[in-house]
Amino acid sequence: MRNEPYLLGTWHSTTRPVGVPFDKNVKWLGLTILEAEETGDATAEVEFIARSKSSSAPAVRLHERSRFVREGGRWLYVDGDIKPPRR
């Protein structure tokens, strides 16, 4: 949806970038949550696959395990590890 204020508002201040450079030629096709688990009182991890397609390239999959913290009752994205593509 290219909603930069929302995206930045859900990103933890310690790792949040100044802005998000959206590519208008990329269309996001879907998001599949593979696993979500609370790892502590205020921490959690989510593993997902996001699919996108550029107008000039084949579709791609982003497979990530993300870390979140809860502050003020809100879950905030901290960082994540990108998983290599399955062969």
Could you characterize the architecture of this molecule?
The chain is mostly beta strands. The protein has one helix and four strands, in the order αββββ. The chain has a four-stranded antiparallel sheet with strand order 1-2-3-4, with no helix packed on it. A hairpin with a 5-residue loop joins strand 2 (43-54) and strand 3 (60-71). The longest helix is centred in the N-terminal third of the chain and has 6 residues, at 4-9. The chain is globular, with a radius of gyration of 14 Å. The termini are far apart. The model has no long low-confidence stretch (mean pLDDT 95).
- Please indicate the count of domains: 1
CATH topology: Nuclear Transport Factor 2, Chain: A
Mean pLDDT: 95
Oligomer: single chain
Shape: globular
Return the CATH class: Alpha Beta
Classify the beta-strand content into a percent band.
over 45%
Main sheet attributes: strand count, strand direction, barrel closure = 4 strands, antiparallel
Share of helix, binned:
under 10%
The CATH architecture assignment turns out to be Roll
Please state the CA-atom Rg, rounded to the nearest Å.
14 Å
Low-confidence stretches: none
Number of helices: 1
Strands across the major sheet, in which order?
Answer: 1-2-3-4
Q: Strand pairing plus helix content: what structural class?
A: mainly beta
